């Protein structure tokens, strides 16, 4: 019974998110700049400059160039983002080195999740104002997790849950330049 309730809630959530869909459009185009804060356990451990340059290349392809500047040391990530299905909000970020990352655009937010080596990475780019994109990144160690559930409780089947410890966070407020 409890498992059916979980499945029903998941289905309702999925349908409501799909109906609230909006399109990734030209209003994201431009150069955005801000400070990227890298968090430790209790506070910001490092701050560096971050730029996000978005330019329309065609109806379904955008430049997605990220530049980091840490005390004059420049690191440029010249990516592309391609629309797969605007109606469904599916995109792919091409790192132009053989790496493709699925991204999903829903409710003014572009999200991606991927795993690399022993880490899971969740990113979010949210258009919070006409001239502002809020960037968040969370990292989790996939080797360190807790398993719970997978039992019966009060005659109900409880699904097994695997939770990962969030061990890293990055955040930036990126302001559009004129």
Characterization of this structure:
The chain has 1 helix and 12 strands; from the N terminus they run αββββββββββββ. It has 178 residues and is mainly β. It has one domain: Calycin beta-barrel core domain (Lipocalin, Beta Barrel), CATH 2.40.128.20. β4 (73-85) and β5 form a beta hairpin. It is globular and about 60 Å long. The model is unreliable at 14-21 (pLDDT under 50).
Structural topology:
Layout: H1 2-19, E1 30-39, E2 44-58, E3 61-70, E4 73-85, E5 90-94, E6 100-106, E7 109-116, E8 119-129, E9 132-148, E10 151-153, E11 156-158, E12 161-176
Antiparallel strand pairs: 1-2, 1-12, 2-3, 3-4, 4-5, 5-6, 6-7, 7-8, 8-9, 9-12, 10-11
Feature tags:
178 residues; mainly beta; Lipocalin; ten-stranded antiparallel β-barrel; two-stranded antiparallel ribbon; 1 helix; 10% helix; 66% strand
């Amino acid at each position: 019974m409890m498992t059916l309730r979980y499945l029903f809630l998941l289905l309702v959530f999925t349908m409501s998110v799909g109906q609230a869909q909006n399109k990734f459009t030209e209003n994201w185009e431009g150069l955005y700049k801000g400070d990227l804060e890298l968090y430790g356990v209790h506070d910001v451990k490092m701050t560096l400059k971050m730029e996000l340059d978005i330019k329309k290349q065609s109806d379904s392809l955008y430049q997605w160039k990220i530049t980091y500047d840490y005390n004059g040391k420049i690191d440029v990530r010249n990516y592309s983002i391609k629309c797969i299905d605007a109606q469904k909000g599916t995109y792919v970020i091409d790192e132009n080195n053989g790496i493709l990352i699925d991204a999903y655009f829903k409710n003014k937010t572009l999200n991606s999740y991927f795993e690399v080596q022993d880490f899971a990475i969740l990113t979010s780019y949210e258009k919070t104002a006409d001239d502002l994109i809020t960037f968040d990144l969370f990292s989790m160690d996939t080797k360190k997790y807790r398993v719970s559930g997978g039992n019966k409780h009060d005659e109900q089947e409880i699904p097994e849950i695997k939770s990962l410890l969030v061990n890293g966070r990055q955040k930036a407020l990126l302001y559009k330049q004129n």
